[in-house]
Amino acid sequence: MPGKRDKSKSSHKLGTFGGVFTPSLLTILGVIMYLRFGWVVGNVGLIGTLLIVTLSTAITFLTSLSISAIATNAPVKGGGAYFLISRSLGAEIGGAVGIPLYLAQALSVSLYIIGFSESLSAVFPGLEIRWISICTTLVLGGLALFSTQATIKAQYVIMVLIGLSLVSLVLGSPLEESRIELWGVPAAQSVGFWQVFAIFFPAVTGIMTGVNMSGDLKDPARSIPKGTFMAVGVGYVIYMLLPIILAGRADAATLVEDPMIMQRIAIWGGAILLGIWGATLSSATGSLLGAPRVLQALANDKILPKWAGFFSKVAGKEKIPKAATLFTIALTLVTVYFGDLNLIAPVLTMFFLTTYAVLNITAGIERLLKNPSFRPKFKVHWIFSLLGALGCAGVMFLINPLATIAAFLVIAIIFIWLKRRKITATWGGLGRGVLSSIIRYAILRLEKEGDAKSWRPNILVLSGSPVKRWRLIELADDITNGNALFTVSTIISESNVPQEKVKDYETQIMDFLGNKNIQALVRVLRAPDPFTGGTQLVNAYGLGQLVPNTILLGDTREAGHLRPYSKMIGHFFKSKKNVIIVQDDNNQGFKKKEVIDIWWGGLKKNGSLMIILAYLLKNSREWQQAEVNVKMVVPTQEAYNGAKENLDNIFAGMRTGFAYQILVAQGLDFWEIMARESRKSDLVMMGLAVPEQGDGFEEYYRSLKEKTKALPTKVFVLAAQEVAFDQVLR
Prior knowledge:
InterPro entries: AA-permease/SLC12A_dom, SLC12_C, SLC12A_fam. It is built from 28 helices and 10 strands. The protein is α/β, with parallel strands linked by helices and 730 residues long.
């Protein structure tokens, strides 16, 4: 029976109290409470301590609000914070935070166990810290491998011990006659407020311990918010009452000097030792339960390399991630054997705080963007989430600026590594929503007619099959050089290809361009024929003011297509689109990309646009070694002198560094001179005549092709846009 199976399956899951509240509270009531809280009270006094506790808990509470909002938005599976972040911000950011979070939790197990071993060795000096740590790791690891339920039940015992220690402290008596110092004693106060705050803050950051058990909870959406708020609230009450007890039973100097002051105040000092041991063991156990589940989630999502896929395997009725747990135990054994982890402890704290900050940012941005998919049952205003993020960032720098920078560097390196792996996630992310908002903001503020000085090409490439006409895409990429937009478009037959296939074609082209490291937009359009499709695309393609201003296409090689091709060019010109036609009759390509010849007809639109395009090409990596030669033909020597004086003035103001050459025809035909001068060039640029009505342009273009057929790869340029291109060059 399905219902029976579901009930049996859920019976092995954890509830709010055991799965979230208990591990979170036990991590909050940790070593800092026992060994550093008296020092805090002694340095900043009662009011200062209450202020630090309130401020610290406020940041934790704001983060809890964000966690609750994300956790109640969609079903939560294993992986805790990693799962929540990756499903909103994407696999790369989720992995960049998740991998350091796993390492921080795994190494935290070592830190807690070493702390336990040192305190036990202080009571029993004959015991060696290293062997205590190894034995403790094996016992806790065996418990985690045996049963999650049993591990949680062991935490109930630890909670009783901590409760016993607190009762013993409350029933204790003053050590000396003292008055409550509201702001500490100046003689004892050698540490400033924010330094004390930085020392105390990690004590209240245990909320993630319960979140990381998300995969083992019966109802994560209900248990995570409820259990987290309960833990934060109980922890806050305890931390607000303890300073009153400590300040009333010892003076500030004693509180600062004696880290074991609670043991001396308590009615039974042994209870405090049991509390310290319980706190360290419970924190270690919580991390030992949480860390493998983060590793398992990372493996499930294929964030880790292929060889680490076995970490996703589970075993037993409780589906314990045994491979991930064994790896965590092995890592802990290695680290506890070498002992001192104090050097990396600050960085580990930074990873936790970074996770909290990213969770706050995630919830804040989701709410701010008002994504339709973000409909949490627990609603939080985005201001509270962003306040939590700012609080986390501020605390990170207060605790350790260098460790903060180191943590961000590690996360950045992992992000770049994951980005290069091009992980395919099956879930959405915030990235698209953020980019859409930015694009909307930018497009609505684009000027209707920009100044000529700010002109950039926005190229629409009519490429056909990208594989067959790769040089068109290559030239567009070199012209834009990552500083302007270009779109690769393909017209497909509407009679042969259904509309459902269009998206598949676009995906194939995007993948092809991605493999070639080309960043371009892609558009596939169905039409009766390429010329009708090209006309329709130019008429309709674009968004607001962000429309293509330049059309780049290849030549037509079939005589029967010349008429519709010429009409299409005429339509582009009437639509105020610049036209670049690439003609490569012998498939020579751009060869060495070392010489560009521009045949100059004056500083008119075509001439100016050709200079701009050549300048943009020369700024690209592929053409940066190219020599650009501007060539002009004059009929006589007298004309040469006037042309030289004119070109000297023009090119001096252009600042392009291009060389120019004036050729005297001396009775020779212009086309003969061009063929002689440019036969070895890699690219030849020349202007196109303005298309005329009727069949005039068709005949002109046919003649132009015939006259230039001896030349290598040619680019015909027709400036049609209402832009003073000569102003761009000044």
